[in-house]
Amino acid sequence: MIRIRLPADELRLLQQTFRDTDDRRLRDRAQIVLLAQRGRPHQDIAADLDIAPRTVQRWLNAYLERGLDGLQPRHAPGARPKLTEELAPLLQQWVLDGPAKQGLDRANWTYAELADHLYKTKGVRVQKSAMHVFCSRHDIRPYRPTYRFLRGDPVKQAAARKDLAALKKKPKPVNSSS
Fold first, then answer.
1. Do 127 and 83 touch, CB atoms closer than 8 A?
2. Among candidates 159, 4, 140, which has minimal Cα distance to 14?
3. In a 3-state reduction of DSSP, which class is residue 135?
């Protein structure tokens, strides 16, 4: 059985952590140490918190080795991202040039097509959703408009305005019988 005797300042710090933390896991771990410090048997602590007695021993050992930092919840680092920052200029250039310049027979990119083309050219396999997140973060929008009215032919614009004006409803004459 692991016996714990805490100095007054450590006990105060542990009690304050137990009261103030919003993290349930840290609060339970601090409570394990506080109950053990009072001399409560490990089996009873485990029963009170509905955990295994081995878990009580594990957290008491972690506290004895590393102090309050040993009780802090840790997170796994996760996998390294496949879409690195070095790929952002390349993807941006692909979108600006369009798929036709890359030898594809379509007018615009989609996130799935960008991901597929990246795999075929660079060997980096990513999902459509990962490509979407990456492009959003780097302000890359693969859906380019095929026609911009402001850059169009001024003669065609004038003709279009004239045709639209002819199609608009004209106000009806008002009949007043007064």
1. no
2. 4
3. helix
Tokens 């409560």 sit at which residue? 40
Record the tokens describing residue 101, joined without a space. 């310049």
Render 44-73 in DSSP notation, one character per residue: HHHHHHT--HHHHHHHHHHHHHHGGGGGS-
| Rounded-to-10 torsion of CA 85, 89, 95, 97 | -160
Q: What is the per-residue pLDDT across 41-82, written as a single tens digit (0 to 9) for each? A: 999 999 999 999 999 999 999 999 999 999 999 988 888 889
Kindly report, residue by residue over 99-142, the tens digit of the pLDDT: 989 988 888 899 999 999 999 999 999 999 999 999 999 988 88
Phi/psi of residue 150, each to 5°?
-70, -25
Write down the pLDDT at residue 125: 95
Residue 145 · residue 98 · CB < 8 Å = no
Q: What are phi and psi of 126, to 5 degrees?
A: -135, 160
Beta-carbon neighbour count of residue 147 at 10 Å? Answer: 6
Q: How confident is the model at residue 147 (pLDDT cuts 50, 70, 90)?
A: low
Instruction: Output the CA torsion 3→8→14→19 (10° steps).
Output: 130
pTM: 0.50
Distances in Å between the alpha carbon of 122 and those of 1, 82, 90, 98?
58, 11, 11, 18
Alpha carbon distance, N-terminus to C-terminus of the chain: 106
